[in-house]
Structure formats: structure tokens, C-alpha cells
Amino acid sequence: MKVAVVGSTGLVGGEMLKVLTERNFPVTELIPVASERSAGKKISFKGKEYTVVTPDKAIEMKPDLALFSAGGSTSLEWAPKFAEAGITVIDNSSAWRMDPSKKLIVPEINADALTKEDKIIANPNCSTIQMVVALNPLHKKYKIKRVVVSTYQSVTGTGKKAVDQLMNERNNVDGEMAYKYKIDLNVIPQIDVFMDNGYTKEEMKMVKETNKIMRDDSIKVTATTIRIPVMGGHSESVNVEFENEFDLAEVRSLLEQSEGIIVVDDTANQKYPMPMDAHGKDEVFVGRLRRDETQPKTLNMWIVADNLRKGAATNAIQIGEYLLKHGLLN
Fold first, then answer.
1. Less CB within 10 Å around the terminal CB: N or C of the chain?
2. What is the pTM of this model?
3. What is the phi/psi pair of residue 144, to 5°?
4. What residues act catalytically?
């Protein structure tokens, strides 16, 4: 199988190459793709060296699958051109997520919606992915009415420039700023730009994407997204109100039995999910399970996942695995 990775020199692109190797995805030929500026660079993959090419050159090389992680404008320009050439695109940007003609996929939840005709498939936002993976088994059993989520998101979600800013600040080095403010020893209550309703774009992504992925517009979601000075993963405090009564032991059991979830919930021994434990892992970690004592049928939970893995690269590759397994790739 010929696989193109568009944005192969970026943080998520690098993670995609790592995940393709670890999950033993059947790549017979890798086509690393980046902008004109990076063309000609060498990328090492499974002990072989490959030359980075531009998107037009990649299309000529006729890959079976193209994993895109090069930003929205690149996706809007190039994904349709790859699709027109018969190449299936799995896109990690926000470009196609809310397009009604495109599927927005988390394999554990809605991969069954995919068909051979889907040539551009959207990978959801990182903070949405980990939340819906944990919510889905509970929604099936108790039906979710409303979700209140506050996120605590890693600087890796912004990219290399943000990682450099954090490390520069930590080492008292002057350098380029990814954020308007200092991030080390600070918390920034803004991710992406503000919209007319006072919410950020990231917050509204979580609202709209949750409804689309879970195929239920009745679920009400309100979000506050926050950037914190950590690397390794995003954390979320989630308050979930259900239509039906739940049993806490049953909630724990449902989560433990669900694909892609690891429950870490042993408060007696101070064990709960943390970004440093999720780093480099593909699962979504859930803990701090407890009733909201202020109102009925409401659960509090804490969700952590590596935003570059399940939040981006792993989810995209799991979509590719599903397509392959069900004969949906040409």
C-alpha cells in the first residue's frame, strides 16, 4: 500500500509516521509530503530513507491513502485534488469537519458510516475525540442530556513553536512567541480565536463535533478550553447529565469494557489519569468518577489522552485500518 503523509515534517506528521510503524500498518511505499520549502528533505521510516515531495508530485505517485496534517488552508486546496485522483484522504485539520457532505469519524463510535465513496474523511478535534470516546458507552446506556466540559490542553496542541516557547521560558531564553502571553507558570483561558458569542472557535468545535460524531443533536454541550504549560496530553473535567438514572459501579464497568478506554480510578491510593501517564499511549484514560451531589442523574469524570496520538495521529490511522479491513480503499 502506498501511503502519503501530507505535513510529514510537522509535529502530528511525525507522530503519524511513528504510529504507522507501531501499529504495523501495511505501508509498502511511504510518500512524505510537505511544502515547497521542505521538499527534498529526507525522512526515515522503517529503516529506509524517503525524499519529501510537494503535493502535486505526490498525486502523480498515486498513493492509495493520504493522511493530511498540514493545516486547514492546505487541506482545502489539496484534499479535493487528491480525492479527484481517486486517493482516499483522511484529514486532520478543521477544514472539512462540519461540511455536511463529509463524515467526521471516531472509529469506536461511527466508523460504520463510512463507504467507498467517502474520499475525504475528517478527523475530529483532539479534545472532542477523547471526550466522545468516554461518553459514547454511557450515552448508549443512559442517554446524555447535557455536558459541561472544561479542558486543560497541552502546548503540543499548538505545535512546535508553542513547545519551543514553553522550553525557552523555562530556560530563560528569549525566542519566538506562539502565544500572546507567557505560558510557563501560567494558564491561558483561550484556545483559537474568539467568536461573536464570546466562545472560542475551539469551544464551539467541541459543541458541534460532539453532536455530529454521536449522531444526536439533542445532546447539549457547553465548553471552556484552557491552555496549560504541560506536554504529553490534554485533560478534561466533564460533568454529564443523563436522562436516566445510573449506577456508579455499572458506569465504571461499562467504561472498563469499552474499546480504547482505560479506567484509572483508585482515589484511596491517589491513582487517577495524568498527562504524563497518557503520553505516547493510544488509549483514553478516565478517572475521578463520582456523582454530582447538587443534582440528580449527573456524573463527574476526568478524561486524559495524548492529543498527538488518539487526539490526532492514532485516530486517523485507525480510520485507515477500518477502511482497509472492510475493503473500502480502492
1. C
2. 0.96
3. -80, 135
4. 126, 234
